[in-house]
Amino acid sequence: MAEDLVLDTAIRDWVLVPLSVVMVLIGVLRYFVAKLMRSFQPPDRKALKEGQVVLRARNLKAGANFIPAKSFRVRRFYFTNEENGLLHVPKDQAQNAQAQMFSDPNMAMDMMKKNLSMIIPQTLTFAWVNFFFSGFVAAKIPFPLTQRFRSMLQNGIDLSTVDVSYVSSRSWYFLNLFGLRGLFSLILGEENAQDDTQRMMQMGGFGFDPTKSLSAEKDSLDIVQHEWVLPKMEQRAEEVLRKLVK
Amino acid sequence: MVGAAEEAQLNRLESQVDNGGGGAWEYLCLVRKLKARRSEKVLKHGLSILNDPKARSRLGGEEWTLYEQVAIAAMDCQRLDVAKDCIATLSKKFTGSLRVGRLEAMLLEAKGAWADAEKAYARLLEDNPLDQAMHKRKVAMAKAQGNISAAVDFLNKYLEIFMADQDAWRELAEIYVSLQMYKQAAFCYEELILSQPTVPLYHLAYAEVLYTMGGLENLQAAKKYYASTINLTGGKNTRALYGVCLCSVAINQLTKGRNKEEESSELQSLAAEALLKDYKHRAPEKLPLLSTMLKNMKLIS
Hints:
Chain B: This is ER membrane protein complex subunit 2. The complex is a heterodimer. By secondary structure, chain A is mostly helical.
C-alpha cells in the first residue's frame, strides 16, 4: 500500500480522545468503588502467629552461630520436634488447608467483590466500544511495525493489506486498558494504582498455602550446622585492643 | 533505638525550634518517627500549633495525628486537662474509633483509675483481640501497679503470638533481671542476639547475665561475649573492658591456675591496658583507684 489512509479529524475528536478519557475516568471510579467495598478484615490469629514463627525461625537460622550450642539445640528442638514443634505441620492438616480456604464464606465473598469490581466495568466498556467504534481505524502510530503486531494493533479489522502502523479502535481500547497504570499511579498515588494485568494474575494464582512455608523453614532449620563464632571473637577482640593500646 | 546521626538531627531541630527558628512541625514529625520520648517539648510546641488556627489548618489531615501525639505527651507530663481536650476533639471527629478508644483508656490509666482502665482495655480487646499496642498497655499497667508477676504473665502470653517482637523480648529480659531470674533473662537476651546479632548492647547484657549466674562454663561464655562486645564497639565500651578483667579473675579463682590453655590468651591484660589508657585520657584523677584495683587483680604489675 503506497498511499496513506486519510483519517478524519472527527475520529480524533469523537473516538480517540473520548475513549482515552472514559478509560481513565472508569479507572478512577473503580478505585473508589473498590475502596468503598473493601471490608475491614481482622487479621487471623493463626496466620499471624505462623508469620511470626517463620520470622523467628529465620532469625534463628541467620544468627545461629552467635548463641551457644546448647541454646541453639534447645531452640531447634522447640521449632522442629515431631510432636508439637512450632514448625511441624501434621500430615492431614496440610491437605486440608486448601479445602478450608474454599469453604470460608468470607474469603469467597471478598474475592467475589474484588472480581466483580473488575469484571463488570470491563465488560460494559468492552461492549460499549464494540458497539459504537468497531471495525475502523482510529489512529496511526508514527513508526512502521512488522506483521506480527497486526493482531495487537488491528483487532477487529480483518484486512491484511492495511499498514500495521494503523491502530483500530478496539485495539486502542486494549492499549488503554493495560497501559494506563503509570497515569493511575500519578493520579491516585503510587500504591493505589490498579493494574488489570496484575489483578488477572492474582485471580489465577490464589490459594497460597501457609503451611508450605512452615515446612520449608523446618527443613532448612534441620540442616543448619551450628558453629559458635564467639571463640573467634576473643582473638579478634585481642587484635582490636592491641591496635587501641598502641 | 535511635541512631547517633538521627539523634544529632533531632537535637539540632529541637534547639532550632526552642530558639524560635521555626520548623516545629518537622520536629514533631521526627520525634514521632523516631519514637523519641520528649514529652515536654512535644507538648509545648504541639500545643502552640494546635492553638493557632492558621497553622493547624495548614496541616490538613495530619492535624488529627498531632492531636493524638499531643494527647499522649500531655498524659506523660500529667497535664490531664490538655489530654482530655485533645481526646474529646478526636472522639468528636472519629466516633467509635479503636485508636481513640485506646487513648481514652490511656487517660484513665494516667489518672490512676486502674480498674476502669482495665475494663476499658478488656472491652476494646474483645473486638480486636490482636491489637499489639493494647496488649503492651496492659503489661505497662501491671508494671505501674507494681504487679510484676502479672506483667511477666501478660508479656509471655503476648510473646506466644507475637514472638518476633524484639521490644517485648527486651522488656521481658529486663523484668527477669530485676526479679533475679537470670536463666530466663539469658534466654530472652539470646533471642535478642538472634534477631540482631550486630547490636553490641545485647551481647553486653547477655554477658552480664552469664557473669552474674556464675559457674565456670557461664563465666567463660561471659568472657567471650564481653570480647565480642569489645569487637563490635572497637574497644570503646568501658563496661565490656571491665567485664573481661573480672571474668578472667573469676575464672582464675575457680580453676586455681589449673586450666593452662585458657591462660594463653592475653585478652585481660590488653583490656586492663586499654582501661588505663582510657582513664588517663578522660578521668586522670581516678587513675590511682583503677591501677590499685587492677594490681589487686594481678592484671598489671
